[in-house]
Amino acid sequence: MSENAISEEPIGNRVVTGLSKIGLALKAQAWKGASQQGLTPTQGQVLALLAQRGEQRLGEVAQSLGITPATASDAVKALAAKGLVVKARGPGDARAVSLA
């Protein structure tokens, strides 16, 4: 693509393309870093979220990470088995799972 063709492309498209490339690079880095620690990227994201925000409900974790509750549940189950996350029933609602 010539320099003129790039400059003629709408700025919004160029921003989206740039952000997509950054996202792919960060995802690749997350996979590499997480696998070195014996974690999946999703598990790493869950741990980072809990470290940043403190105790969260499972639904909050799923929503914050943009993943399904089932995916969040699987990641938390694996983290709990590794002793990295503590699950407890939420206060006032026995159906809610609180994570720390």
Write the layout of secondary structure elements.
Elements: H1 3-8, H2 11-36, H3 41-53, E1 56-57, H4 58-65, H5 69-81, E2 87-90, E3 93-99
Question: Could you walk me through the main structural features you see in this protein, from its secondary elements to its overall organization?
Answer:
The protein is of the alpha+beta class and 100 residues long. The chain folds into two domains: 1-36; 39-100, Winged helix-like DNA-binding domain superfamily/Winged helix DNA-binding domain (Arc Repressor Mutant, subunit A). The chain contains five helices and three strands, in the order αααβααββ. It has helices spanning 3-8, 11-36, 41-53, 58-65, 69-81, and strands at 56-57, 87-90, 93-99. Strands 1-3-2 form a three-stranded antiparallel beta sheet. A hairpin with a 2-residue loop joins strand 2 and strand 3. Helix 3 (41-53) crosses helix 5 and helix 4 crosses helix 5. The longest helix has 26 residues, at 11-36. The radius of gyration is 18 Å and the shape is elongated. The termini are far apart. The model has no long low-confidence stretch (mean pLDDT 81).
